[in-house]
Design brief:
By secondary structure, the chain is mostly helical. The chain has one domain. The chain has 8 helices and no strands.
Length: 270
């Protein structure tokens, strides 16, 4: 067990010793501050009233777009970079099984996703608290909630956990590509293409009048659409939050099973 913990620590060191990782974390903190500042002063100049709740939503959308992109970059390079840099042979000659090596890389990825999600959460919360205070943040939009810091924390928290689950599945897909491909750049490119085109793919599948489309990954990624009793994008075939989470869990298992199968069978001599 102690050896496996050291293996996870080694994978974390590979992530956080890169200058690029700290640049990502810096951007993740600075972007919500910049967006909130621009929206706040733009509202002051033109007389429009931008509420704290609206600003918090905008901040969270931008922040978790970055969290998804950064997680995809880390996931895509996790295994593929070992082949690109030629370090995979040095890693495999050590007394660890391929399963342990892959699991340690995936745990390091999840820890990175968890860290960036917490940073995004706290940054969005405290930035809006600083601009609008606890009592004015959401009561302009949802007065019946008797808004305060606790409500801000809860409303933002619902968005964060749904985005975390969706991003974890996307990162698992990127990790699978990383395990299957030798090219770091190709794995990142394909993964980012899926991220940016997911809405377009969802729209295409919605044009198909078949019951099986409710199981398509792209239609289940936006978990916020199922909150507050909503039934998802398919009008004739209602869905639910539990159903969507179950579908994402199935994809999560499939992606990681393929990653493990491919990595254990890969020939590193080539």
């Amino acid at each position: 067990m102690a050896n496996f913990v050291k293996l996870v620590q080694n994978e974390n060191m590979k992530i956080y010793r890169r200058v690029g990782t700290w640049v990502m974390l810096g951007i993740l903190i600075l972007l919500p501050i910049l967006v909130s500042t621009l929206l706040y002063f733009a509202g002051q100049d033109d007389g429009s009233k931008v509420t704290g709740f609206e600003m918090m939503q905008v901040d969270a959308i931008f922040a978790f777009m970055l969290v998804t992109i950064f997680s995809v970059i880390i996931a895509s390079g996790s295994v593929a970079s070992e082949f690109s840099w030629g370090t995979i042979k040095l890693l495999l000659i050590r007394p660890w099984s391929r399963t342990s090596i892959l699991l340690s890389k995936f745990i390091a990825l999840v820890l990175f996703l968890l860290l960036t999600s917490i940073i995004a959460y706290l940054t969005c919360f405290f930035v809006n608290l600083a601009f609008f205070g606890a009592t004015n943040a959401v009561d302009e939009v949802i007065p019946e909630l008797n808004a305060g810091a606790g409500v801000m924390f809860r409303e933002l928290g619902e968005f964060v956990w749904t985005e975390f689950v969706a991003t974890l599945v996307i990162a698992s897909f990127s990790f699978m590509l990383s395990a299957a491909l030798r090219s770091n750049g190709l794995a990142i490119g394909l993964s980012l293409a899926i991220v940016f085109l997911s809405d377009a793919f969802a729209s295409l599948f919605l044009m198909i009048d078949q019951p099986w489309i409710k199981f398509v990954l792209f239609l289940n990624l936006d978990l916020m659409q199922f909150m507050n009793g909503h039934t998802g994008p398919i009008d004739d075939d209602p869905m639910s939050l539990g159903f969507a989470v179950g579908v994402l869990a199935a994809y999560f298992v499939i992606f990681n099973a393929i990653s493990l199968l491919v990595f254990r069978k890969r020939d590193v001599a080539a």
